[in-house]
Amino acid sequence: QVQLVESGGGLVQAGGSLRLSCAASRSIFSISAMGWYRQAPGKQRELVAGIAAGGSTNYADSVKGRFTISRDNGENTVYLQMNSLQVEDTAVYYCNLKGPVSGRDYWGKGTLVTVSS
């Protein structure tokens, strides 16, 4: 029922920047908590950044100060601005929507971010 479409992944040099976008197909976006997760090779999927429906944000310690999550409710889109990228940031990044009623998780297909040294 909820489709999440990600864009913006790619290859970038260490120290560079990328902005990921995730567009949701439903208007429930505006009342849904959103998040960006990532899964690096050989590691578990982890929360990178989250944003509540009201705009409150939280970040993994490893990205705090470098990444910024934001949302545009008019566009049903959540963004992840990634600055000062490090090789350790290399991962598949997934967009997540938390259903406000059911609490179930909806996931995008993932987009690969590769940071080269």
What does this structure look like?
- The protein has 117 residues and is mainly beta.
- The protein contains no helices and eleven strands.
- The protein has strands spanning 4-7, 10-13, 18-24, 33-39, 46-51, 57-59, 67-72, 77-82, 91-98, 105-107, 111-116.
- A hairpin with a 6-residue loop joins strand 4 (33-39) and strand 5.
- The mean pLDDT is 96.
Class by alpha and beta content? mainly beta
Fraction of helical residues: under 10%
Low-pLDDT runs of 5+ residues are: none
Nearest-angstrom radius of gyration?
A: 13 Å
Structure annotation, total helices: 0
How many strand elements? 11
Shape: globular
Mean pLDDT: 96
Main β-sheet description: 7 strands, mixed
- The ordered string of helix (H) and strand (E) elements is EEEEEEEEEEE
Strand coverage percent: over 45%
Task: Report how far the terminal alpha carbons are from each other.
Answer: 40 Å
